[in-house]
Amino acid sequence: MSKIAIVTDSTAYLTSDEVAAMHNVFVAPISFTMKGHVYIEGVSMDNDEFYTTLPTLDKLPTTAPPTPQDMLSLYDKIADQGYDQIISIHLTSGITGFINNLKMFTQNYSKAQIVIYDSHITIEPMAYLVRVASQLANEGTDLKTILDKLDELRASIGVFFVVDDLKNLVTGGRLSNSAAFAGGLLKIKPILNLTEDTHQIVPIGKIRTMKKALQNIEDRFAEVYQDTDYPLHVMLSGTNNLKAIEDWQVDFSSRYPDTTTEVGQIGPVVGTHIGSNSFVLSWIKEYFTE
């Protein structure tokens, strides 16, 4: 029977305790450069220090995925532990070219079979896919069955989010069709999601206040909820605003008591692009009640 490992990157924002408990998960850290210094996400600087520093910067931090050699070294380490199949789940190709490059430079890798898997998203929904893949692999499920389940769950993922302003997304080049908001970046709360085909960030609405913006994305989710015939797991996350996210979860759960929910905070790599005080509502077909 094959021994399957799961690889992901640090934008899944899994804790070290979670990773250790899964036994077969390995995390490739993404780096960011700020004020001329290179930091490793989840290692070199905590979220509080990052978000305290971010608004003081004249120039946004830059982010960089692991190098090809870093990834090959990680895969070698995994293969040396007896794993002969690897599912490598990473942030969407709609945001970065990392996953397409990864497919190219691993195609002749011979120490283990590697499947490069585009999550079509990042943060908590990607982490959810990792948890599912890990559990199935630990149960002895074969590679094809795991990938089929990941495909099923990935197809159910959706997200709406609101940022305090578009400055970081526009400056970092991560927003498609940003011209639609020209001249009003600081006066509105943009509603965004990812396109179904290319998984790029696009604006879908603009609201004057954060309170109304959160109501707007909940109204949009309500339509999805009404049209869905399976249980949903909802993930509420944000940047440098844990208390507000926890309060949101209480209110949200009272309106949707039959959904499971979790809360989280987004780290520096994604936070560089969406800025402080962002709110994210994402969902996926519930797996862990099956």
TrEMBL record:
<dbReference type="InterPro" id="IPR043168">
    <property type="entry name" value="DegV_C"/>
</dbReference>
<dbReference type="InterPro" id="IPR050270">
    <property type="entry name" value="DegV_domain_contain"/>
</dbReference>
<dbReference type="GO" id="GO:0008289">
    <property type="term" value="F:lipid binding"/>
</dbReference>
<dbReference type="InterPro" id="IPR003797">
    <property type="entry name" value="DegV"/>
</dbReference>
<comment type="function">
    <text>May bind long-chain fatty acids, such as palmitate, and may play a role in lipid transport or fatty acid metabolism.</text>
</comment>
<dbReference type="Pfam" id="PF02645">
    <property type="entry name" value="DegV"/>
</dbReference>
<protein>
    <submittedName>
        <fullName>DegV family protein</fullName>
    </submittedName>
</protein>
<keyword id="KW-0446">Lipid-binding</keyword>
